[in-house]
């Protein structure tokens, strides 16, 4: 019996969920049910990314405290499990789950040989929670959101991503790390061959409004949201903890033999297929075995987003998956997806 660990990405909770989140959840659920039907042991995990600057900014715009705002929206994401008849085995929230912070701290310490601190000035897109190089922009705008990034100058901790180009390429070309479809695999190889730059893995705590996980030994900084969030795939399994919980979950689903499969949208491919595997190599852990990438759901040629952009006109609940399931039934929504 093969152990198969299937994860979705954990979305920001700066707004309520839209139908694009349902697409990935239903895809993961179908894959989980398929493997269970084959007799495999399956763990299907989802969750929410609570520790983001964009969550802090959205809470301020809504006139709510960050904790109240994050909890309210995270609850809506968690409720999709019932609304869409998902067979989720575990749901992790990065700001609430007691497994997460100690695991992130342990992961940070495990990567310490590849971490250094330096002053940096760059172009930052809050929507992506990412620094961009000018050559990566389209007419000076973020390729994902179409907004002009903000120039930010600060001192942060950096991860030596540049050290891992060769082992990442070998893992992908050998098939040890399978990326599907082939076009996305080629995209990742192109990123690697174009040169990997070290990336910032912390933010000043004051810019983050004090929200997030403090960097171990440096409380003036918080762990960068992507470093924090990516760790959920192992922190939910007990990484960074001692005792039976780690032995039973982490060793079975990650450290042992079996399938470790991430489902994700094309917009976060770089983080999952470049940054995350490099972080795992730095911390001495196994790589995922599969990264399956989907495109976006669109309306009128535009990506459906939490902000409502691209939502079909005339229906306020048109991109709200729970509302769609209530109106048409979960089976109809799942079949359409």
- The helix/strand class is alpha/beta
Strand tally is: 15
Described by the principal axes of the CA atoms, the overall outline is globular
How far from one another are the termini?
A: 30 Å
**Major β-sheet annotation:** 6 strands, parallel
**Low-pLDDT sequence parts:** 309-318
Order of helices and strands: EHEHHHEHEEEHEHEEEEHHHEHEEEHH
Task: Describe the protein in words.
The protein is of the alpha/beta class and 337 residues long. Helix content is 39%, strand content 22%. The protein is built from 13 helices and 15 strands. It has helices at 19-37, 53-62, 66-78, 80-83, 100-110, 165-173, 182-193, 225-230, 232-235, 244-255, 269-283, 321-328, 330-336; strands at 3-7, 41-48, 90-93, 115-125, 130-132, 150-159, 178-180, 199-200, 202-204, 214-215, 218-223, 259-265, 290-294, 298-299, 302-303. Strand 1, helix 1 and strand 2 form a beta-alpha-beta unit. Helix 2 packs across helix 3 (66-78) and helix 7 crosses helix 11 (269-283). The protein is globular. The relative contact order is 0.18. Mean pLDDT is 90; it is low at 309-318.
What is the fold's blueprint, element by element?
Blueprint lengths: L2 E5 L11 H19 L3 E8 L4 H10 L3 H13 L1 H4 L6 E4 L6 H11 L4 E11 L4 E3 L17 E10 L5 H9 L4 E3 L1 H12 L5 E2 L1 E3 L9 E2 L2 E6 L1 H6 L1 H4 L8 H12 L3 E7 L3 H15 L6 E5 L3 E2 L2 E2 L17 H8 L1 H7 L1
Parallel strand pairs: 1-2, 1-12, 2-3, 7-13, 12-13
Antiparallel strand pairs: 4-5, 4-6, 6-8, 9-11, 10-11, 14-15
Helix pairs in contact: 2-3, 6-7, 7-11, 12-13
